[in-house]
Amino acid sequence: MSKETRGEILLDAIYDEVDQRLNPNQEECWYCGGEGYTYDCIDGCCIDAESGCEDCAEPCIECRIYKRDRARAIREEVIKSDDVDIARAWLKSVGRWRDNITNEQIRTQLAAERGKLLTAATPAPDSEEGT
Hints:
Elements: H1 6-22, E1 37-39, E2 57-59, H2 61-81, H3 84-93, H4 103-121
Antiparallel strand pairs: 1-2
């Protein structure tokens, strides 16, 4: 039985909050029905055109979009948390953790990325103001 760290517990809460925000009804993908693949089979040319064949399978574009949006939202929430333990747990979960990363490096990166988020969220001044 493994003990979860404080950061892992809080990261799980971030996952739950992001999942609830992006998919409040916890519905399956409208495009593929939750399978993760779509099939573009041609009747008469494929082994099983009705349910789809392996040769015609493609990753579902809507699932890929959701996965991207989810990863981005989780990253942003980790940055907004400004918590080294959460950031460490997130780095481990995405496979970017190395043992030689210090708490100070994490704090520095959190601050830099938070600045970028704030800059991106601030509307740009109207360039047509002088005309």
